[in-house]
Design a protein that fits this description.
It contains 14 helices and 22 strands. The chain has 525 residues and is of the alpha/beta class. Helix 1 packs parallel to helix 5.
Length: 525
């Protein structure tokens, strides 16, 4: 292929109208940022353009898990699950500040019934017709968890075990009909920080990261792509369309190309409540409608519940939870928790649009979570990304660049900024930060380590007292931290800082949130 073997010195990669980039990436979600990072590390000159904030759409609205997708086993998506399971620990080791192991409790009761038409359900009805319709035998659940434990291999994460909910603390607060549960492992991840850190690492390796920079037109011009943006014109030898929900619109509108591939837009909504239980494990709840939801400890004092699967017709329509979705999640959780979860318990909601590859499935729930990489070499090449999930973003980037013939894979095990320590060292790092900055309490220090890892020391600098960090906006957010986000993490507005770089918007009132936005505008470079 024409691009094989190209290399450009990273220090030469800057923003200029006359520069010819090896690769131009449209879209600053997780797939675009992951591809930009990988390509930059291979020595290619790279530019990435994102119309809004990095991770501002789908990639900051996930359930925030690195997981294999236990329920995908029911759809016989063994390849997807295996790939995702293998990735969990690879990713965990590279970002132990923003990702950590989490145990999931799956309650089971013999009287549970599910209105499910998955391939597993159909097979069960054929080979075991005497089993009551809708019943999911305990041995079937245990078999699925056995596969989940062993398909991808594990070094750090512990395997499945059985819990007696009548005595275990995980049973407290659940309805009495649940006598036992299975407990298994997956990983939490701060999704929007993951996107930003990939972009930062790409920039450190020479990439130009252009935020608030919509691509207006991309046309083939001889052997190059000519890309018109809000910030100027750029030229590149190859193009990646990682537009997420807008991937098809970019193909047909911005690029004026035809495509044989389509996406299915599925809205996933979540609710956040005050903390519903006292331990640090998550719950995996199975619904009578064949769906599942998670209830997850969130930001220390809250519980995250989600997600829904609803068809979404227009990528340009901002996804917002409906009353029906909110009530559905509350009712779903109430089937398990002894104390009903009501709309009055909800303190925040968020929704995102997942751009699933359209495989013709009958429902949003059944649509594949795998991805398709479509390469068009009719002139200077363009690769479009259809579908995908956050857990497989790094492998997707590797496969995308391999498909384009661009260099060798390198990202496995390479730490993201701030992640250069071991998974088990989070506690000791937190204690060290408190020792060196005595004005921090344990909770404040833990938040900084979970956000910035070893870069927490850079955020705090030479401060001797809390006053040295500038104005305090509430919930331990200071001017020094905001300045770090603005100068190092592409944050421009209050929402960037309060809902994507952190989730401190949950702890600040409207007046305090407005003060953050005003301060950022006044202190913009």
């Amino acid at each position: 292929m024409v691009l094989r073997g190209l290399r450009t010195h990273p220090e030469d990669a800057g923003v200029s109208d006359d520069k010819i980039y090896d690769l131009f990436v449209i879209g600053g979600g997780i797939n675009g940022a992951g591809i930009a990072r990988d390509a930059s590390g291979r020595g290619l000159s790279v530019a990435l353009a994102e119309a809004g904030d990095l991770g501002g759409a789908t990639s900051s609205a996930s359930t925030k898990l690195f997981h294999g997708g236990l329920r995908y086993l029911e759809f016989f998506e063994f390849g997807l699950v295996k790939s995702a399971l293998k990735e969990r620990e690879v990713l965990l080791k590279a970002m132990p500040h923003i990702s950590w192991p989490m145990r999931f409790v799956l309650p089971y009761a013999p009287d549970m019934r599910f209105d499910s038409d998955t391939p597993t359900s159909r097979l069960l009805r054929v080979v075991m017709p005497w089993i009551e319709k809708g019943r999911r035998p305990s041995w079937l659940v245990r078999l699925g968890l056995f596969l989940y434990d062993n398909l991808g291999g594990r070094e750090i994460l512990p395997g499945t075990k059985t819990l007696d909910l009548t005595t275990a603390p995980e049973g407290k607060g659940l309805k009495s009909r649940f006598k036992m549960a299975y407990e298994y492992s997956d990983c939490w991840v701060e999704d929007s920080r993951l996107v930003m850190l990939n972009a930062r690492d790409a920039e450190a390796r020479g990439a130009a990261i252009l935020t608030r920079c919509a691509v207006q037109e991309a046309t083939r011009d001889g052997d190059l792509w000519r890309i018109e943006t809000e910030k100027g014109t750029y030229r590149a030898k190859a193009l990646v369309n990682a537009g997420g929900p807008w991937v098809a619109d970019i193909l047909t509108g911005v690029m004026r190309q035809n495509s044989q591939h389509n996406i299915r837009l599925v809205r996933g909504s979540h609710i956040v409540t005050k903390r519903l239980y006292d331990h640090d494990k998550a719950y995996f709840f199975q619904g009578t409608d064949g769906r599942i939801i998670f209830a997850i400890p969130y930001e220390q004092d809250f519980t995250l519940i989600g997600t829904t699967d609803a068809e979404h017709t227009d990528a340009d329509t901002k996804p917002t939870i409906t009353d029906e979705e909110r009530d559905y999640l509350c009712a779903f959780a109430t089937e398990y928790f002894e104390k009903p979860v009501t709309p009055d318990d909800v303190v925040w909601t968020y929704s995102g649009v997942r751009p699933l590859y359209d495989d013709g499935a009958s429902s949003a729930t059944a649509a594949t979570r795998d991805y398709v990489l479509a390469l068009d070499e009719n002139g200077p090449p363009v690769l479009s990304v259809f579908g995908g999930k956050i857990t497989t973003y790094r492998k997707l980037a590797e496969k995308a660049l391999a498909k384009m013939g661009l260099g060798d894979a390198w990202t496995a095990g390479v730490a993201l900024p701030g992640g250069d320590f071991k998974v088990v060292e989070v506690g000791s790092l937190t204690s060290k930060l408190v020792a060196e900055y005595p004005f921090l309490d344990q909770k404040w220090a833990a938040r900084l380590i979970r956000a910035y890892g070893t870069e927490a020391w850079d955020v705090l600098g030479d401060a001797k007292t809390a006053d040295d960090l500038g104005p305090e906006f509430g919930a331990t957010l200071t001017g020094a931290e905001l300045k770090w986000m603005m100068t190092r993490e592409y944050a421009v507005a209050g929402d960037d800082a309060l809902w994507r770089r952190t989730k401190l918007g949950l702890r600040l009132n409207a007046e305090e949130r407005a003060a953050v936005d005003d301060w950022m505008k006044e202190n913009a470079a």
